[in-house]
Design goal:
Elements (H helix, E strand, L loop, with lengths): L3 H9 L5 H17 L4 H8 L3 H10 L5 H15 L2 H12 L4 H19 L2 H13 L3 E4 L4 H12 L6 E3 L5 H7 L8 E5 L6 H12 L3 E6 L5 H4 L3 E4 L12 H17 L1 H17 L8
Parallel strand pairs: 1-2, 1-3, 3-4, 4-5
Helix pairs in contact: 2-4, 3-4, 7-13, 8-13, 9-13
C-alpha cells in the first residue's frame, strides 16, 4: 500500500546512512513535493548525490527510484487536500508553460491508460452491458460529468439506462432500491474517491447485480467491490481533476458497444436524424 512507505521510512530510519537520513527526513516532511522530483532534483534539494537517492529507494525494497516515486505519487493523490494540491501543482509547473505542462500530463495519462487497460476486461464489460436488463450509472462530484456523458450515449443504444442523480446519499440508494441480478451498475470513481459511489457499488454488488468500475487502479476502493475494472489513469495533482483518460476509456467502451450492436445503433440514429431535422435540433451549416 502507498501509505506504508512513510511507516517503512520511519521504521528503518535508524539504519540509514547520514545521506539517506537527509532523504528520509525530507520525504517524511514534504512527501507531496518529493513525489514529483526526479532522483537528481531530490538529491540536489537535500544535498546528496543522485546515486544516494537511488540506493535509498533500493534500501526500502523498491527495484529503483521510479518505483518508489510511483508509490509516493499514489500516496499524494489519495491524501492531499485541495489547497495542498494547488501548492503541489504550482511547484510542478514552476516557470514552465502551463498549457504545455497540462497537455503533456494528459497525454501521459492516456499513454499509461493504454498500457494498463485490460482488453479482455473491456470485452467482458461490453457483453455484460449488452445483456443487462437495466443499466445504472453512478458518478458524483467531478465524475458526475463523466457519468452524464456515458448516460447520454448509452440511452441512445439501450432502452433502460438510468443515471443515478448526485443528490443526498439516501436518495441515491433509493434510486437503486429495485436493482436486480440481471442489471449492471457502472460506477465511476477517481481520486479522491467518493465514499458515496463506493457504498452504492457495494450495495449493488450485495444485491446481486453485475458491477463495473471505471477507476484508476484495480485495488482502488471501487475496484474492490466490482466484478470488472476498467483502468483509467487520473492525475489529480492540480487545481482540477484530469478526466481526459477516463473520458477516453468511456469513448472506447461506447464505440465497442456500438460495434457489437451495429444494426440497432444504425436504426436508432437514423430515427434520431429524422427527429433532429424535423425539430431543428442542430444549426444547418451551409
Amino acid at each position: 500500500m502507498a501509505t506504508d512507505i512513510l511507516s517503512k521510512i520511519q521504521n528503518q530510519m535508524h539504519g540509514f546512512s547520514k545521506g539517506q537520513k537527509l532523504i528520509a527526513g525530507y520525504i517524511l516532511e514534504s512527501y507531496d513535493k518529493a513525489a514529483f522530483m526526479t532522483a537528481s532534483k531530490l538529491g540536489k534539494t537535500v544535498r546528496v548525490s543522485e546515486s544516494t537517492v537511488v540506493r535509498f529507494a533500493v534500501e526500502l525494497g523498491y527495484d529503483g527510484y521510479p518505483e518508489m516515486q510511483k508509490t509516493l505519487q499514489e500516496l499524494v493523490r489519495n491524501k492531499l487536500t485541495s489547497v495542498q494540491r494547488i501548492e503541489v501543482a504550482n511547484n510542478r509547473i514552476g516557470n514552465q508553460d502551463v498549457v504545455s505542462t497540462v497537455l503533456q500530463a494528459d497525454i501521459d495519462s492516456i499513454r499509461m491508460t493504454n498500457d494498463a487497460l485490460d482488453r479482455a476486461e473491456m470485452d467482458a464489460c461490453v457483453q455484460i452491458i449488452r445483456k443487462a436488463g437495466a443499466i445504472y450509472i453512478v458518478g458524483v462530484r467531478s465524475s458526475a460529468a463523466l457519468a452524464a456523458y456515458l448516460n447520454f450515449y448509452l440511452r441512445n443504444i439501450f432502452t433502460d439506462v438510468r443515471l443515478v442523480s448526485s443528490t443526498a446519499t439516501s436518495e441515491m440508494f433509493e434510486q437503486l432500491l429495485r436493482v436486480r441480478k440481471d442489471d449492471v451498475v457502472i460506477g465511476i470513481s477517481l481520486p479522491r474517491y467518493s465514499s458515496r459511489t463506493v457504498k452504492l457499488m457495494q450495495y449493488a454488488h450485495e444485491s446481486g447485480a453485475k458491477v463495473i468500475a471505471i477507476t484508476d487502479k484495480r485495488d482502488a476502493p471501487a475496484g474492490k467491490v466490482a466484478d470488472h475494472v476498467l483502468v483509467a489513469k487520473s492525475d489529480m495533482v492540480s487545481i482540477v481533476d484530469s478526466l481526459v483518460a477516463p473520458m477516453s476509456v468511456i469513448n472506447a467502451l461506447v464505440v465497442s458497444i456500438g460495434r457489437s450492436e451495429q444494426q440497432q445503433v444504425e436504426k436508432t440514429f437514423e430515427d434520431l436524424e429524422t427527429l433532429w431535422d424535423e425539430y431543428d435540433v442542430y444549426e444547418r451549416v451551409e
